Amino acid sequence: MLKTNFGKLMVYSSNKESQNKKLKAINLATRKTARLLNMSFESRQINENFSKVFVYYDNGTDEPIPIYCDKGKKERIQDICTILRKMMFVLSFHPKHFSLKYILDLHQK
To answer: Which of 66, 64, 75, 81 is nearest to 28 (CA)?
Structure first.
């Protein structure tokens, strides 16, 4: 069976140690969602000082699209997964990202 990669989910955070706990949850949720949707996963820490953690969708050809930003509060891993899947669903209606609709439909069955 041919396994196709439908893009990448990327987590961006600062390298502040105070973010470790929420970053761990967001990384886990994003990795789980990427695996479920047959996407790759990447986590990058940036040497800038900011308090939020961001998740982007990258299809490999266009500019990465932000799909999640933590609001500074602790969210459960399952809630983060749900938010990510909902954002991918919304993104699947855009003509550039129509292939997402296919993988989301497969996931629903």
So the answer is: 81
